[in-house]
Amino acid sequence: MNYNFEIEKVFEIIDKNLFTYPGKEKLKNIKEFEDIEKIDEEFLKIEELKKIKEEGEIPFEFPDLSNFEKELLKEKIFLPSELFKFLIFFKGIERIKKEIDKSEFLKERFFKEYENILPIFKELDKVFDEKGEIKDEATHELYKIRNEKKKLINKIFGILKNKIEEIGKDGFLKDNEIRLREGRFTILLDHSVAKRFGVVHGYSKKGLSAYVEPFESIEVQNLYKEIEEKEKEEIEKICIKLSEILWKNMNSIKRIYEDLGEIDLLNSKVLFSKIINGEKPLYSKNKFFRLREVCHPLLLLSKKEVLPYNFDLPEDVDIFVISGPNGGGKTVFLKTLGIIIKMLQFGIPVPSSPYSHFYLPDKVYGIGFEIEGKIEEGESNFTSHLKAFNEIIKKDEKDIILLVDEYMANTDPEEGSALGFSIIKEFLNKGIKSFFVTHLNGIKIFVEKENDKRIKNVSFGFDKIKKTPTYKISMDTFEESYAFEIAEKLFLNKEIIDRARKYTLNLSEMLKEMKEKMEKIEMEYKKFCEEKQREIKREKERIKKEMMERVYKIEKEIEEIIKEIKKEKSMKKVREAKQKIVYYKKILEDKLPEEIKIGEFYKIDGFENPGKVIGIHDNDVFLKVGDLKFWVPKEKLSPLEKEIKKEVKKEKVTFIPSIKSYSLSIRGLKKEDALDEIEKFIYETYSKGAEEVRIIHGIGDGVLKLLVWDYLKKLKFVKEFFHPPYNEGGYGVTVIRFKND
């Protein structure tokens, strides 16, 4: 829907003709003009620039401005090199302004801040020479300093030359050159005698020669270093002064910088218009098109033979249904219309006669020009197109143009024709100017039968003798796709084409017959599935009933066994038998989860609250109930009757007071009853945040104590357990401490 008709390729060509960084930034951020008046003003600027360029090209002579806005337009003390860049920038602006001022229209709109920067321009020009060096005459003080500096340098060189002549006689001199080392002027001597003649400021790579500052020149060189420091201080003062002037006028400089970008972009549009013979045609909000010598700009640039469009599309027709042969120019026509409208909205000249007229809407929508179906969302092109149509209908926009290619091409022809025409009627009722390219004969016939002057069939012609498209448009007619004729033109096997012609004769009857067969098969399959479901349900209930009877019988038998086991005091077997009974009953009553999943909630036998699964290992499940975490066998879990909704809630902070001591007495209980009480007591106190609990089991024969300790060894959340001191119960009590991390 947001197809841009390849306008970005036009921008790429325009970009190649831009000379400055601000111009490229202007193009990068280019936006469609909001109203007709702004477009008019843009074309006036282009026309005025064309007139100026007839006398000669506009000079774009500037330094690299890629970091100009980011670095140089900051409030800081500028370096001499940066100040010189401002000077070059101002000189470039001066040259362009002389050209722009030839047009009163452009003069009123560009470089209006130029007068503000003239004083800065003059100040900078006084300071810098053509190479970017600060002139001696920049200030009176700098002039004095540099004169003094010249005298001192002459004096230093005089002393060093005399020394070279003197030492040269003794054969210690390496050459007659004067070199700068560590900021001091030196001569090159043999290392063995270097320190006899002056201060050493370094050695050669092999260490055989030394750079020596003669003793006779030290005082003068010290004066030279002092004068150099004065020079730096004076240059710094100059930079501070110029920087302050620039800061005060920075807003004017920024506006001039932006004006340069716009002039560069306008100039590039002029150059582009020359390449495509671009013009400013007529345009308005009136919904008609008068096309005269209109071409697609990218086709022109491809050097292919292009036939221009020359016809009218009247205002009183809202919908154009376009048909014609494959490869007959229908898609190219829509793309031409789309890109021309886009170019005009951006103020770019178009390949057209100036007498053409274009309707300029607020927006242009294009559907069907590229693959819009999204594989990751399981969308087909048909689905994608319907979504786009629905979005446009919901927006209820009036001032738009809709250009649709391959309309309803990816669905059943009969249903596609009916749905397609119904959608067309919706756009017709909304008064939206629309163009639909289609090969569906049904849509063309619906248009004819509708007999509404606001909707018309339009066709691109086909020469039946030459078997080639004519690329010419006709109103109030529709054409076939001429697939067979074009196939013949492309030398497709004649036998294939003849066979295809026979298929078309009875295609409708075949489709109807197939449809009836499919409906009959669907009905029979539906009945078959329903009957099978009933059979499965009956069989399941029969098996369930039979198994329940068997389990109840087994349960009675086990109860008898339990009585005998009690006599032998083997409670472990009793508990295992009970668990198995519960497990089988759950299976038969559909209360056992089919598949336990991490993150899901389940009911736990013996617990009021459900638990969340956070881990699974073999037949054991790791659960979380509130702050409590523990392992249980799978058979202790049941599905919840109501699903717990996983909502994102704000975390509530609840304060649970520390429970220093809980106690449980199991004295006098049988082992199986004691174990139930212990298990319940341990889990409840741990879940409430207890730090320490006590179980009173007495001393006796030690059976209950052994039961408690054996059980505690299996619990991962128990930190330690032990007997307290004698005065707190001694061997008759077990103290348990929990892990609370």
Short description:
The chain is built from 22 helices and 23 strands. The chain is an alpha/beta fold.
Fold topology:
Elements: H1 7-16, H2 21-28, H3 36-53, H4 68-72, H5 80-100, H6 104-107, H7 114-127, H8 140-168, E1 173-181, E2 184-190, H9 194-197, E3 198-203, E4 209-214, H10 218-248, H11 250-276, E5 282-284, E6 289-294, H12 297-301, E7 309-313, E8 319-323, H13 330-345, E9 357-359, E10 363-367, H14 381-395, E11 400-404, H15 413-430, E12 433-437, H16 441-450, E13 455-463, E14 468-475, H17 483-489, H18 494-505, H19 507-568, H20 571-588, E15 601-604, E16 611-617, E17 620-625, E18 628-633, E19 637-638, E20 662-665, H21 671-687, E21 692-696, H22 703-712, E22 718-722, E23 733-738
Parallel strand pairs: 5-9, 8-12, 8-13, 10-11, 11-12, 20-21
Antiparallel strand pairs: 1-2, 2-4, 3-4, 6-7, 13-14, 15-16, 15-19, 16-17, 17-18, 21-23, 22-23
Helix pairs in contact: 1-11, 2-11, 3-11, 5-7, 7-10, 8-10, 15-16, 19-20, 21-22
How would you describe this protein?
With 741 residues, the chain is of the alpha/beta class. The chain has 5 domains: 7-137 and 243-276, MutS, DNA mismatch repair protein, Chain A, domain 3 (Orthogonal Bundle), CATH 1.10.1420.10; 282-505, 3-Layer(aba) Sandwich (Rossmann fold); 512-592; 593-654, SH3 type barrels, CATH 2.30.30; 658-741, Ribosomal Protein S8, Chain: A, domain 1, CATH 3.30.1370.110. 49% of the residues lie in helices and 17% in strands. It contains 22 helices and 23 strands. A 6-stranded mixed sheet has the order 10-11-12-8-13-14. Strands 18-17-16-15-19 form a 5-stranded antiparallel sheet. Helix 3 packs across helix 11 and helix 8 packs antiparallel against helix 10 (218-248).
